[in-house]
Amino acid sequence: MATRSDQTGNQGSAQDQMVAGSAWMTAGSIFSRILGAVYIIPWNIWFGAFYLQGNALYGKGYNIYSFFLIAAIAGVPSAIAKQVAHYNALNEYGISVRLYKRGLEIALVTGVSIALLMFFGAPLFTGGDQHLIPVLHSLAWAILIIPTMSLTRGYFQGFQQMAPSAISQFVEQLVRVLYMLLTAFVIMRVLKGNWVTAVSQSTFAAAIGALAGLLILGVYYWRRRHYFRGLVANSNNELVVPANQLYKEIIAQAVPFIVLGAGITIFQLIDQYTFAPIMHLAGTYTDAHLNDLFALFGVNANKLIMITISLSSALAVTVVPLLSESYTRGNKQEISAQLSNAFLMFEFVMIPSALGMAAIASPLNLVFYGRSHAALAASILAFSSYLSILLGLYTVVSALMQGISQNKRAVRYFLVGTVVKFVVQWPLVYFLGAFGPLIATGIGFTVTCYLIIHSLDQQFGINFAHIAKKTNGILLVSLGTYALARLVAWIGAFSGSQGRVVNFLIVMVAVIVAGYFYVYVVLRTRLADAILGPRVAGIRRRLHIR
Length: 546
What we know:
Elements: H1 4-38, H2 40-47, H3 51-73, H4 76-89, H5 93-120, H6 132-158, H7 163-190, H8 195-223, H9 225-233, H10 243-261, H11 263-282, H12 287-329, H13 332-359, H14 361-369, H15 374-403, H16 407-432, H17 435-460, H18 464-493, H19 500-524, H20 527-532, H21 536-542
Protein name: Polysaccharide biosynthesis protein
Subcellular location: Cell membrane
InterPro entries: PG_synth_SpoVB, Poly_Biosynth_Transport, Polysacc_synth
């Protein structure tokens, strides 16, 4: 029988793994998202008067591509990570390798099939915008590559090796952004070419970046091949799993990942295909004006809030294999502890990030998007920042459900939220314009998150009293962080400048002042220790905080 100290040690080890894994995945996601946002500034300048139209076209193409990509990947990477962790916990590493090979076969088939569908079926998905056809053609090439790359990331994650995934993700984004900026400059400034062509090359950059990311994963696998072979050689080899059963396991685990992984994208597609028709009923608007509005709430704000949402996404990827191991062992106490840790780590990074972005929405918008519709754009960005907490929470709780093999139930709850989104979409857009889709999204995800959290509590008993005590501390410090950032932005507004350089300085001062306040207080009060574990003490010593 396991002693209390053994259980405590196991929980501590799981928390350490979660923190270390989250650190790698969070770093990779944040740097990737920052790169994916910073390119906007020169891209905006080089597109000139065509910027909002170009960004709307880019966003519409990427929304469709994201949905097809999730279908092509078919949730296989996350399913592979979960199942690899399951067999690794049983010391059956040989089955994990076979699982990876079978997953590759599925990924290749789905990748080719979905890429062909997207390329030749592009005219069917444009919603009447013919400019989308060349954009979808360029994005189809990425779908040929990304499933294999994502699957390999899932394999590493199943072994709790998060560094290869994080670094390949960063390299993928870096190469993609460099190609985007190079082609945008050459086409728009050197050749004085067509803006649709420039957007098409910017989207084709996804395929170039994917090749670079896959190459990095190949290098990591080659360097660690002896380690993997050693694990296989020392496996128990007591289980015999036929190839057909492996295929069934992958598909059974993967299909719910498609729906849940595409959750945010599905809501964005609902906005993309319903916003303009509803607005045409509400008043007399030109298509160009509605494209500008869609760019403001559906693309511009989205790019920035996805930086903070990536924090929770990284956490979600880390939690699934750990929960799968605990679920395989049938340890409900450990599962309950991991659920609490996951919620607290999510709050610890997401709440101050979202509130901080809302506080500096006006100067931040001016830095990235310039003066076009500045007041409306800043308001939308601030509202979207608050909304990002709900989007991030959905990402985490859906991953938690998958980690404990409650996939079908999670899909049902998501479908309920989607129905709610559909029901409230029309009146909210009709009466509230560009804010309507955002509010409808918030209501839909609130319903889904409530149903999932209620289900988790019913099954494993979430310690809400434990979470609430630390949540109050996080919220209090986060509000102080918000107030400081807002104060800096308010003082900076007296400059009267709408230029990028001045507002960039305002943003940097706000981030440094408010960020340091948050870090100092959570370390000084030992709140960080309670959530992230004892290793935080080393950071406190290095910063000379007692």
